[in-house]
Amino acid sequence: MDNQKQVAHDGWDEYANKRIYKSRGKIGIWRSLGFGAFSFFSISMQGLVGAWLMFFYTTFAGLTAGQGATIFLIGRVADAIVSLVMGNISDNIYKYKLGRKFGRRHIFILAAAPSVLVAITMWVAGMSFWYYLVTYLIVTVLMSTLQIPWETFPNEMTKDFNERTKMSTTRMVLAGLGGMLTQFVPAQLFKYFPKTSPEPYILMQVIFSVATFFLILVTYHTTWEHFVTKAEAKKLEAEALEENNGEKPNLKSELKNYFSTFKIKTFRLHMGIYLSSYFATILFSTVFVYYIVYVLKMSTSTSGFLQSLSIVSIPVTIIAGFAVTKFTYRSLYLFGYSLILISAANWAFVAFTRPAHMMVWLIVGMSFYEVGLYILYFAPWNVFPFIPDLDTLVTGKNRAGLFASVMTFINQIIRDWHPLLPVTYWTLRTSVNQLVVLSHNLPAQLT
User: How far is C-alpha 412 from the geometric centre of its chain's CA atoms?
Assistant: First the structure.
């Protein structure tokens, strides 16, 4: 009896029967929706930031474009560092009782629910540079800390190709819906507030944060993960010591682990495709509002309406889910990039020629852009959940968190540079304006 009691309360395998470790059968559309609901976490904290925060900083916060870009850069560097270590922390937190009790993935999902409310603090007008820097740092670090563990769920929950494809497709559909809402909801709010009012910005964040709070709880209760037993933990520890010549893991061995992910060729290839697409959309979201307001002399509500056309991502992602079983990935990529190039030519044409029926041209260009973008989003994300399986065949370990961490780290490094684009724009715009003034004044000065 004493031995049974000791095993029952050993602080390890006693947690194996918790609900978060129990598979609940086949993964259908409803459970996929439960998993994908968490994507609104990134939308509510990152989608609004990418589309509106720089404009908010330079219009209502009293910051210069340079100060806004500085905040973005510092935040992204901090975020990249956190992203690099977060996957490893999530993979190994089972070594502690807290991680076994609440789950090495679910503990972070549970923490995300109240954390999403912190994003509201970024949208308070009239504060100091340091206030905006600190609030942005907190939000962007929370973003990676809490999202990386969630990205491992397809690998944790199933090995079936069709089920993982269903989860990836559903996730992308919900992300597309969220991206559309980050443009549509602000556009509607702008109609009821003066252009000089910062209130719609904080109100839109409150709406998304409160809704996301409850959606995160849905994800928590509809997903599960693999439980690392005491026997498995001993085996993993022994393998780690063997790989590190009998020594405990250190900085050198951890860095070696990160670089080892690139031994998987499929990971290198699809990472490059995904990051180029992701960088493009971050760049586009940051600059587009400036393009509409300052180049075309149209309103912010017009920008919001056009970007809300991302709703096309919903049918596009669903169609791509079927197309991936009929066509090669190369065909999907070629089609997607072709549409992106056509849309880019359209933006230049509109800016230089100001054609009649300009809104029609803008809607067509945005539609091409959104369709191409979400094709280029979908294909890599359909592959990523299977890459850790290839790694498991090579290493014998489940390093899904490590792969998610490396992917996010590289993603953040690339994204660090996009805030410089508005600064470059403002610099060029100021220089052009000065040249125009000089050209107008020169004839008078000569006479």
Answer: 10
